[in-house]
Amino acid sequence: MSNQDQQPPWGKKKKPQTPEEMVAQLIKKLQDYFSDSPQKKPGRETPTNSTPPNPFASIGKLLAIVLVVLLLQGVYASFFKITPGEVGVVLRLGKYNRTAEPGLHFKVPYIDNLYKVDVEEIRKEEFGFRSRYPGQKTSFDRRGYDMESLMLTADKNVINVAWIVQYRVSDPQAFLFQIKDVRQAVRDLSERVTRRIVGNMDFDYVLSNRDLLAASVKQELQQELKNLQAGLSIGTVQFQDINPPDQVKPAFNEVNEADQDMKRLVNEAEEIYNQKIPRARGNALQIVEEAHGYAVARVNDAKGESQRFLSILTEYKNAPQVTKRRMYLETMQEVLPAVESIYIMDKDQQGPLPLLNLSRGGNPAASFQPAN
User: Fold this and answer.
1) Domain residue ranges in the chain
2) What is the DSSP code string of 183-243?
3) What's the CATH superfamily of 123-244?
4) Would you give the distance in Å from CA 220 to the centre of its chain?
5) 260: which of 26, 232, 247, 301 is 20 to 30 A away, CA to CA?
6) pTM above 0.70, yes or no
């Protein structure tokens, strides 16, 4: 048997199913309750001598309902929830009271005011361009932002600089109440710091040292925000594009090409220099060392010969004949092996006598040459 069959014969009372129906019924009951004339029921007549309604009774009922509504609203507003990544700053009668961490908390209704601040969100400010349709295929729009990007360098050149500043909230209380427009303060300070730093650098230095430039801007910008007690922490300062203005780009490209050619020629010259000069220095050092070696050898030989001569002179003074004969024999021993034909001259002979050289192993007749 279905539930409908189990209902009493007089029917089941219909209850509201949605919040809208409940509100509609409540409003209808209030209208019926505060209606000036009561509804007439069928079969009955309203007496003509009824007393007029009391207006103060209606006002009292209205005030009671207002008090009940305020009480319910106060109870509902007494509890608040802080989600992860946020903090809540609670003011009591307009004065800072406490900072609420993520979770469920209680506050005094109609006395405490709550301000939620996202402390994990990375906020970003763009200068010289704006991102369009962020995502995997992000497009950038640079038109109309020349006043933000054009700067003057120390050598009186105009340069186009586009950069990004990323920051997050580090002190929620200071972020809410120290500066009226925090975003505009970040933009103004970033432009001032960047223009001052770029204005103290040369054009070529700015083009080739964007990382050092970004680090300097980040450090000084963080110090400026700290002095203002903005409650912000700078995360990243990144220079997207640093180029000369469009009007001078052709001339700038020509200068760059000439500079590249000059650097190429200098590199080639340095390569040839590194090949030739060390080799020449090595050869010169080799010649000098050989000369030193030759000089030392000649000096040592001369010293040895002179010492040998002095030794022979000493022996000659002691035994002249023996020393003279020995020197003669030693000289002949050195000279005769290199002589092809040897003739012995005898004062008693009429012609020279050839010496048979048996040490060469040749033909004995070859060494004999008869005299004419």
Assistant:
1) 79-118, 123-244, 246-361
2) HHHHHHHHHHHHHHHHHTS-HHHHHH-HHHHHHHHHHHHHHHHHHHT--EEEEEEEEEEEE
3) Band 7 domain (3.30.479.30)
4) 17
5) 247
6) no
